[in-house]
Amino acid sequence: MPTNKKFYFSKKSPVQAEENLSANKLRRVQRAILETLSYRAAFDYPLSFYQLANFLLTRKRVDFISFAKAVESLIKLHKISVKDGKYYLYKAKTVDWDRRKSISLKFVEKAKKVTEMLAKIPWIQFVGLTGSIAALNADNDSDIDMIIITKRDRVWLTRGFLFLILKIMGELRTEESSKQKICPNIFIDESNLAWPKNKRNVYTAHEVLMVRPLFDRDNTYLKFLKANIWIKGYFGNLECDLEHTRTSGLERNVLFNLVEKIAMFLQKKYMGGKITNEITKPNFIHFNKTDSSTKILAKFNESKGKL
């Protein structure tokens, strides 16, 4: 019976089929590398070979040989450049990687010393760095962003004590004094570790993955990663096979529960009309007055569209 259909693959030898499959895989890995560097180009930040492999934007895991081959091919095609072991889009503007890393690590040491005092607050389960310092991309004008995880129903009480301690130490970031100051802008309680579903995207996936632990009690950091396993949908090379973990004992102190509610009421009243992009819930606080995620995602999508 005559037909107009053509079965191209049926005429190919097993070797040709394998070559075709290899070519498709190479293009997929090349695309992942280009998208990863496109995202970092929004920050003018190049990546080391190790960073590029681990932060690769891919749903499927990529083996080392395929990754190395794709990197080499993209350099030959003048799609990406490498200088001093750092990779970036061809002819893209980049910051001084080593200088930024040096500044960031200096801030990390400062944050560690401050955290030693903050860890005395009994309801704090975890303290970590976020933002430019966690990404090792800070400059001398950066502030020190922190994420705090507390015991259940102790977010607002913890925030009150933490701000008081930082203010006494002269380390609290304010509108008048922000350079190299502590900015605790994310507070989560241990019963609500998963990032809000409506806020999940490539930007927040990076923020979650790049959190740099400073203090950890009861394996809270591992619980945080497990609760946010959705980031593997962006980082296929991420190995995060975590064992089942339990939350620590829940607070049942009626008096402190009441104090927590009062602390939340007073702090939200003080904020009043100052709230803009901030999220202020009973078990999740995110202060992000200058939310740059929309701008970064727009630049990323624009760059991706040119690939």
UniProtKB/TrEMBL annotation:
Determine the domain of life of the protein's source: Bacteria
Q: How is this protein named in the record?
A: Polymerase nucleotidyl transferase domain-containing protein
